[in-house]
Amino acid sequence: MDLNYFYTFNEVVRSGSYTQTAEELGYAQSSVTTQIKKLEDFYHVKLFERVGRKMRLTPSGEQLYDYVKEIIKLADEAETHLRTDTNLKGTIRIGTGETLAAYYITPYIKALKEKHPELRIRLESGQCQNLIGGTVDGTYDITILLDQLQHHPDLTTIPIRQEEMVMIAPPQHHFTKLGVLDLKKLEEETLILTEEGCAYRVLLEKWLKEANVQAKSIISFSSLEAIKQCVADQLGIALLPRIAVEREIQNGLVAVLPFHPNDITLYTQIVYKERKWISPPLQQFIDLMEK
Predict the structure, then answer these.
(1) 187: domain range?
(2) pLDDT tens digits, one per residue of 192-201
(3) Residue 97: which of 139, 142, 144, 133 has the closest Cα?
(4) Which residues of 87-110 are buried (b: 16+ CB within 10 A; e: fewer)?
């Protein structure tokens, strides 16, 4: 069995699309279809079924996927172990949240790619609880989180830096003239929140619950850019990491409110499975982020 078929199969699972897989791997779409068909013929099973525009694994496909993840992992480890040149190959899989993917880690990925042009880097974003699960089950080699420090029995955690959280409002909002913002004042405001499960939404909801505060209304978005635009358009107030809104603050599009809680600290942190073998490119990536 050609090992490339497994890489193709894995990419179809990730993207849910033969077309996107072909674009990602540089194949014709017919080649992707042919490779999946050869796998199905070899194992005498159907691996995917179409649901809307997406390809979804069948029960047999799910079984094969469990094996394929291990096969690819071992193949990549062997390639990295055995190669002696400086241009390392193989694949590293990094999980992270939208904030860090958009506003923090891309320079480190660029630096690693410049050092190892043939290295494949899979960067996927998701919610914290899903990222932790994916790290434990081996979906990701490492995960970069913005959250409270993780203390998981199956994971190693490396704190990188403390992240400042800021509550933002339109520049002309009357809250900007306060000396200190009392949470009780938020009862008459519209809060613009990230999606459920996001670390800083959980943090704000905890503060509001402890202060017995219920906001007048809540708007929820999964997009940080949408949240920032809503604040700039005077639709409400939001709590976000400063790294995500620094440009808007400097340009005067939003203002930072005088809100300075100190009971919980969020960190950018590297998380990986306990006793995991750290390949040379993974170690180099970690070293870059620790500098």
Answers:
(1) 164-263
(2) 998 888 888 8
(3) 144
(4) ebebbbbbbbbbbbbbbbbeebbe
Q: What are 100-103's contacts with CB under 8 Å, separation 24+?
A: 100/144, 100/145, 100/146, 100/268, 101/125, 102/224, 102/244, 103/241, 103/243, 103/244
Contact 192, 226 (CB under 8 A): no
Say if strands 54-57 and 48-51 run parallel, antiparallel, or are unpaired.
Answer: antiparallel
How far, in whole angstroms, is CA 252 from its chain's centroid? 28
Number of domains in the chain: 2
- CATH number for the domain harbouring residue 36: 1.10.10.10
Distance of CA 62 to the CA centre of its chain: 23
207 and 261 in contact (C-beta within 8 Å)? yes
| Main-chain dihedrals φ then ψ at residue 180, nearest 5 degrees | -145, 135
Q: What CATH number has the domain bearing residue 236? A: 3.40.190.10
Its pTM stands at 0.68
Find where tokens 């995991």 sit: 276
Distance (Å, whole) CA 83 – CA 94: 22
And the tokens for 124? 């996927």
Mean pLDDT by 10 residues, the chain (291 residues): 89 91 87 93 93 91 93 80 62 90 92 87 83 88 92 92 93 91 87 88 86 86 92 94 94 92 81 86 90 81
Determine, yes or no, domain membership for 133: no
d(CA 128, CA 143): 9
